[in-house]
Design a protein that fits this description.
- This protein is an alpha+beta fold and 244 residues long.
- It has a single domain, classed as Muramoyl-pentapeptide Carboxypeptidase, domain 2.
- It has six helices and four strands; from the N terminus they run ααααββαββα.
- Strands 1-2-4-3 form a four-stranded antiparallel sheet.
- A hairpin with a 6-residue loop joins strand 1 and strand 2.
- It is globular.
Length: 244
């Protein structure tokens, strides 16, 4: 269901009679206003200078107290489905759709990394930032996946053929659980959104890479996806220096 812009006619809140009375005001007012200077204010403010009975703004919440808060999976699936359909109407092909999903995921990934850093530094006495590749990938495999999907990824693998390629595998990605891809778009992987998140986190940690998502279904896991990480040459060169 794509978004559609609907032009609603503007309706004036003034009736014809009231508008004419504004143009030609009557010398005799129809009502009298009373001022009670000593009357107490109904909207009394609490200690946070907020009217009582008004829920706190989301930006005022403590980030540590909401770290384990979960969002309904049905709500998440609905919003992501709308995001995919909204984007699909504005692209020319599968590659363009995956690229845009990757870009949207990248924006989320930058905020996820910033939030994880803040929580780690505010709760840990000795916060640590990984400078080696494999521990950084483990952070994504465990902490990032738990923060977004409430579970760690299933595996991390290294390519046998290419030294600059690593893979993160999720056997049952929640992001794909309620997505039905048409036959003519069977090559589409909506987990390109997840790949964008991973790419943003790697860039933020100092491991620039190109990250893509691929459908790798099996008989046991028909929704299995593989996040392919292709590292830049500078990352491998730094890894060699750290070994010495």
């Amino acid at each position: 269901m794509a978004y559609a812009a609907v032009n609603h006619p503007r309706v004036s809140v003034l009736s014809t009679s009231s508008q004419s009375s504004l143009d030609h005001p009557s010398p005799t007012p129809s009502s009298t206003r009373f001022s009670l200077s000593s009357a107490p204010s109904i909207n009394t403010l609490n200690s946070a200078n907020r009217p009582t009975g008004v829920r706190p703004n989301i930006y005022e919440r403590n980030l540590n107290k909401t770290r384990f808060a979960e969002v309904s999976l049905s709500s998440f699936a609905f919003l992501f489905s709308e995001l995919v359909q909204y984007t699909q109407k504005r692209v020319n092909g599968i590659n363009d759709l995956e690229r845009r999903l990757n870009t949207l995921g990248y924006r989320v990934g930058t905020r996820v990394l910033e939030l994880l850093f803040w929580r780690t530094e505010s709760t840990s006495k000795a916060p640590k930032r990984e400078i080696k590749l494999v521990p950084a990938l483990m952070v994504i495999h465990t902490q990032v996946w738990k923060a977004i999907f409430s579970k760690p990824a299933d595996a991390i693998e290294k390519s046998v053929e290419n030294a600059d390629e690593y893979m993160i595998i999720d056997n049952d990605p929640p992001i794909e659980r309620y997505i039905s891809v048409p036959r003519d778009m069977s090559q589409l992987s909506c987990s390109s959104f997840t790949a964008g998140i991973v790419e943003a986190v790697l860039d933020g940690l100092g491991f620039p890479a190109r990250v893509t998502a691929h459908n790798t279904p099996t008989a046991q896991y028909p929704s299995r996806i593989t996040i392919l990480i292709k590292l830049e040459k500078s990352v491998l060169e730094r890894e060699e220096l750290l070994k010495t």
